[in-house]
Amino acid sequence: MEITKYPNSILASKIKQVEEITPELLALINDMKAKMIEAKGVGLAGNQVGLDLAIFVIDRDLAKEHKVPEVYINPQITEYSKDSIFMEEGCLSLPDRWLNITRSKKVYLKAIDEKGNKLKIRARGFLARVYQHETDHLNGLLIKDRFEKQNPPKK
Question: Is 134 tagged catalytic?
Fold first, then answer.
């Protein structure tokens, strides 16, 4: 399993929903966790490893700190706070590139975990930022796209 890098077209595609949790899917999720650790990331989306599957994983320590799962299947952010924060972000699919991105301070996310349990999570701070970053991936958006939307060229 390798990290997919920009400009690979899968990174600009809206990713398909997972229909069924299978042993093969669980094996892919474990491979994603291992790849994220190896790459020193805090999150990794399915399309970042070439999978057309709406899945992301987050760092084990981040998950423990916030008492949330490491695995998110078919995630969807259902609400964004109006309050936002401006912060530098990096991305495993855009190595050595850091951009200042404005994100909501709080979000509500719904998903299912790898056991099929429905999740509804209210996140704030860095966890909310990670959720937004990984959900963007599954919607075909990279930090460069978010940056360009927030900083249109001056005419």
Answer: yes
